[in-house]
Amino acid sequence: MQEPVLQIDREAPIAIVTLNRPDQMNALNAELRIAIASAFAELEADKEIRAVILTGAGRAFCAGMDLKEIGGGSEGQTGYDLSVAGQDAMRVNIANFSGPVIAAVNGAAATAGFELALACDMIFVAKGAKFLDTHARVGIVPGWGLSQRLPRLIGINRAKEISLSGNALSAERAAEWGLANRVCEPESLLDEARALAIDICGCVPEIMEQLKTMIDTGYSMLFDDAMEYELQTGIESSKKIDSAEIGKRRSAVMERGRNQ
Question: What CA–CA distance (Å, rounded) separates 105 from 181?
């Protein structure tokens, strides 16, 4: 019996989503792309799941699009079709997931696989893993957000170095440049991602989700507009505050800090 191309392991309040085409370095064929979109829609509807870790089986995180499938013309899709489908999967199903999505990059994240990692809220990367943007080398332009997300994370000059050269970016340099949150030993990658996800899930659910939305929304605005947006959002939120409950939570936070 053939294994599914995507595995979902629920460990409430988190879920681990694993790209499962290890022999193809988890290249994104049509079946896998559809499965990713469906998985995140399913997890969004599951009220017990508040955070997701996205990783790959085998030695790669994701080698990008399945060029063999596309070259064979089995999908009957144009480049435009693929770009729109990819944007939908990245933006609607991953980036707009209400809780945090942590990419646990266990191996190579190349081109569309790089874009998949960039759609997540945080990136943990294993030592020895690499990021590559090979669009310029294979003769296509990105359509899933790489040319826009990457400069906003690491700066325009560094993004140009990566995308215009097609050279690999090491895990250590990715962290140094602000692309990755942290570099982990391969055997502890999932454990570290899981620990942070559980910490985040210990926060007030609706506030954690609202903060994620505020950060993402404000990041695309001019600074003055973003400050006004934060102010207005804060005013609306303050109308729902229970002062006594906040006092209890503050005391618990202080106690936790003393014990750390």
Answer: 11
Predicted confidence band at 4 (pLDDT cuts at 50, 70, 90)?
very high
**Residue corresponding to tokens 């936070």:** 253
Cα–Cα distances in angstroms (integers) from residue 146 to residues 55, 83, 113, 123, 170, in the given order: 19, 12, 10, 15, 17
| CATH code assigned to 6-201 | 3.90.226.10
Q: Are strands 6-11 and 14-19 parallel, antiparallel or unpaired?
A: antiparallel
**Local structure of residue 48 (DSSP, 8 states):** T
Domain boundaries, the chain: 6-201, 221-259
- Rounded distance, CA 58 to CA 49, Å? 25
Phi, psi angle pair for 181, to nearest 5°:
-70, -40
| Phi, psi dihedrals of residue 77, rounded to the nearest 5° | -110, 145
4 HSE (CA, 13 A, CB side): 12
Residue 256, pLDDT > 50, answer yes
Let me know: does 69 contact 178? Beta carbons within 8 Å: no
With CA atoms as reference, report the closest residue to 219 among 151, 132, 163: 151
| Model pLDDT for residues 116-136, shown as the tens digit of each residue | 999 999 999 999 999 999 999
| pLDDT digits 0-9 by tens, 56-98 | 999 999 999 988 876 655 444 544 455 555 555 555 678 889 9
